[in-house]
């Protein structure tokens, strides 16, 4: 803008210098007055006394004395020919030069008339005027060279400034591109490392889960095998001992077996509970870590998108600035070419004027030659007149002829007097016109001064209005910021309160579901325990019955009763056993009914969960609608200000956070559904167990039938073998005692080894979990350090932006100083161009008004651009602060969750 202004000033200075020179040429007349150059009077031809020694009186010119030749009258600008003034400037200059030549020719023609006594001082006056004209031409050329020098200096300055601007813009664009590439590379490296760590973590998790599953399956298989083998051995031993041992030893063995079974069941339950708790804890940790990692990925993606948008916006701004600078350079070049064309035209005009001056010089030389010839002729006429006077004195007869000549001369004198009167009237008319022109010039000067004062007042008022508007806008911005902070604080309070309410509802639901699940599991376990105890009691009853039957058989052997009675008693025993089986089946049906009731409870729990999820969704929708209504209200209230964009963005971020919370609630609901599915799986396991019990009962029925058949066969064999076995009872009792002692020792050793193995395995698992937790802690600490470094980089960027704002303010101050200098130059230029302003008042007034308006507009545009840039920088600072605050909140939340997990 300053360069354009300088070019326009140089163009105006050239135009003013040319017109001042033309006005100077116009004011100089070819008949400048000299000392004693009055109009000469003609000598009368009457006879004079004889005095030949008397000096001759010089003949004076009868023309009037005019101080300066007046300029042609200026056309009245009040008649409304303003639009044609610019097009008629060059024609007026040519007309003025033509009038000057005509005036010089008229003066030369007047001098050529045969007059009696032409003064010799006229030549000196004409020479002086020619010298003045040459001096003015030399001054004009000197001014032209000065203008050309200033113009060349200006051209060099413009070129240097263009080079500097292009170098700065290229360096800035290169630096920004390098920053963008570095940021992209850093982000890609971080993303790759993060993905690698995530893959490693998932693989380790899967491997650990697979190992735990395999170990658990192996333990269950070993326990089942041991349990089945021990049952078979115990049954075989019991059957053998029931035949060989006494009732007391059998009771002791039964008590020991029950004690060992209870301890074994307790250990199994503990191991199962520990395994389930570890699995649930591992699942929760894995889910939480996955959620945290996904949130971190989303945050990183958002940061990358924001940085890409920022760099894209900056590149667009720099490209727009470069385009503007190029357009300004093109405009400057066009203006420079136009000025060069105008300078060429002016040089052609100067060349034409110099030619006209040479022609005027030639005409003056011709007029001087003619004057010398006229003077010679005057001398000759004088000599002739002297001779005639001598002849008249000699000849008195020629008086009539002299009187006739006298009458003729009187008529000529009358004609000359009439001409003098006409010239006097012309002189008076010209003086009146000069006075009118002087009054017009004074009035025009007054109008110009008043217009300049008015423009200065307008400029002052505009500057004051700008300052007042700046203050008002700053106050409004402060008020809006305070209101926005208040609203943000209120929104945060409401949002925290709603979050707390949702968290309380969530915790209450979680506690209720956990309590219900615990109650259900506890109830199921108690029922299973009761069923197991009932089955054990029934088994003990069956064993007692078998012992009673054996005792009866022994008694029958000793008493030698009939086989018919034995068969009837066996049938009775089979009937009793069938009754026991029917009882067991009825109990199984009861268990199935309990399982169905549990299914119904699970379905009701699912319905409750769905209802609670629907209520949570409705509440979230209500919260969203409230937030959107608040946003709309704020937008309707503050649609005239651009600072509301930050608030809208913050509210949109809040909406996004509410969406995230909704997703979290949805995830929790999914977890509850998974829990319900797990309960369904447990239900299916219970059903499978019931089916297994039924199959076992059917197998037991078949075994009982087979045993009944076998017993019927064995009873006959036993009768023959009883005698042989009675002999071997003593030996077998000793062996039984030894085998029982060995069996007890083996059981104790196995239990000790199994307990030690289980403790070692659980200790190893705990150590592995601690190591994984430590690794995760270290990983999180490294991420926190990286985020701190990123925040430090962003603070450095904010400081750089502050420095840029300071540099822009300095540029603004420099621009203002340049404007002040230009105003001073304008004042100096106005002081130099007072004469020009007197003649070209309205044209220049209008031109200056248009230029001042355009300059004010350009100045306002620059100020508006700077304000917009400052606002953009302020918005960027606010966005960065908001991002830092959001990151701090996110990491605080993550740290709290991590502490809770630890």
Task: Report on the architecture of this protein.
The protein is mostly helical and 902 residues long. It has a domain at 1-33 and 87-220 and 298-394. It has 9 helices and no strands. Helix 1 runs parallel beside helix 2 and helix 2 (85-112) runs parallel beside helix 4. The longest helix has 189 residues, at 644-832. The protein is rod-shaped. The protein starts with a helix and ends with a helix.
Proportion in helices = over 70%
Largest sheet: none
Report, as a whole number of angstroms, the end-to-end distance: 66 Å
Secondary structure class reads mainly alpha
Shape: rod-shaped
How many helices in DSSP terms?
Answer: 9
Low-confidence stretches: 20-93, 110-119, 638-644
Order of helices and strands: HHHHHHHHH
Bin the strand percentage. under 5%
Q: What is the CA-atom radius of gyration, in angstroms?
A: 63 Å
Overall strand count: 0
How would you summarize this macromolecular structure in one to three sentences?
Residues 23-94 are annotated as: Disordered. The protein is mainly α and 902 residues long. The protein has helices at residues 2-27, 85-112, 121-244, 247-394, 399-559, 563-637, 644-832, 834-839, 841-901.
Topology summary:
Elements: H1 2-27, H2 85-112, H3 121-244, H4 247-394, H5 399-559, H6 563-637, H7 644-832, H8 834-839, H9 841-901
Helix pairs in contact: 1-2, 1-3, 1-4, 1-7, 2-4, 3-4, 5-6, 5-7, 5-9, 6-7, 7-9
